[in-house]
């Protein structure tokens, strides 16, 4: 399932007395706040959902899967999410209902 900002806005409108434009702005502002916190080098914690943080990845040797040619994968920064208890419980519940196994 793809969850767009518009769909998130609609879900918020179902719960709060907001018009769709206000709800979509709320979602946009939330993501901008998370992004700004990460850009400043901070971890961003959403209680129960998880902690977003930037992880520095070193350069490493790699291989082009199409050609098999060896190459160097450049160092980079990636955003990672460590799941909080609420999200972890939801994913485990979903996995059990659909006979899936996740490794944390």
From TrEMBL:
One Pfam family named in its UniProt record: Bac_DNA_binding
Q: Which domain of life is it from?
A: Bacteria
Annotated InterPro entries: Hist_DNA-bd, Histone-like_DNA-bd_CS, IHF-like_DNA-bd_dom_sf
* Keywords attached to this entry: DNA-binding
This entry's Gene Ontology molecular function terms read: DNA binding
Q: Does the keyword DNA-binding apply?
A: yes
List, alphabetically, the PANTHER family matched: DNA-BINDING PROTEIN HU (PTHR33175), INTEGRATION HOST FACTOR SUBUNIT ALPHA (PTHR33175:SF2)
Instruction: State the family it belongs to.
Output: Belongs to the bacterial histone-like protein family.
Q: What is this protein called?
A: HU family DNA-binding protein
